[in-house]
Amino acid sequence: MKSKNIFYILTCIFFCLIIGAGVYEHFAVWPVAFSEPPKSLTMFQGDYAIQPAAFWKLIHPLTLILFIITLALNWRTGRRKSILISLSIYFIILAVTFIYFVPQLMQLIGTHYSETVDTSLQNSGDLWITLSLVRMVFGVVSAFVLLSGLTITDKQNENI
């Protein structure tokens, strides 16, 4: 198997890991975290708080590196378009994540503990979840575009 195919497959796997982790968080973490804030946000606080940032700080740089290598290796192939579209969407998702989602989330989960449910905090959490779901839809579409590039054969690549 050619190295360009191996890198393309690795890029797909890593990008799908990101999408899968996002889907997991939306089903398992965020509904609980924002159910009765600030009390329900304790999962992110204290000595035994979950640390999802460790995963995200590792997976994003590795995925970006794989995207760049894959793009370089497939520059003169029919797969270039799929890679460029997916990489562009991913870059936009990352930019929006670092500009809005991460700072907003840090503010929300950093709220001090209280037994009383803060409805404004709950509403902010619901808005964050909704906007994050929109972001995830773009990621899923982008992953589909990237995966569709796997259907372009070497024979098709030679004609380009």
Report on the architecture of this protein.
This protein has 160 residues and is mainly alpha-helical. The chain has one domain (3-154). The chain is built from five helices and no strands. Helix 1 runs antiparallel to helix 2 (53-73), helix 1 packs antiparallel against helix 4 (119-148) and helix 3 (80-109) runs antiparallel to helix 4. The longest helix is centred in the N-terminal third of the chain and has 31 residues, at 3-33. It is elongated and about 65 Å long. The model has no long low-confidence stretch (mean pLDDT 94).
Q: Determine the oligomeric state from the structure.
A: single chain
Q: End-to-end distance, in Å?
A: 20 Å
**What is the overall silhouette?**
elongated
Order of helices and strands: HHHHH
The biggest sheet, with number of strands, parallel, antiparallel or mixed sense and barrel status, is:
none
| Domain unit count | 1
Name the beta content range: under 5%
Determine the structural class based on helices, strands and strand pairing: mainly alpha
**Count of strand segments:** 0
Give Rg in angstroms. Answer: 19 Å
Indicate the low-confidence ranges by residue numbers: none
Counting DSSP H or I runs of 4 or more residues, the number of helices is 5
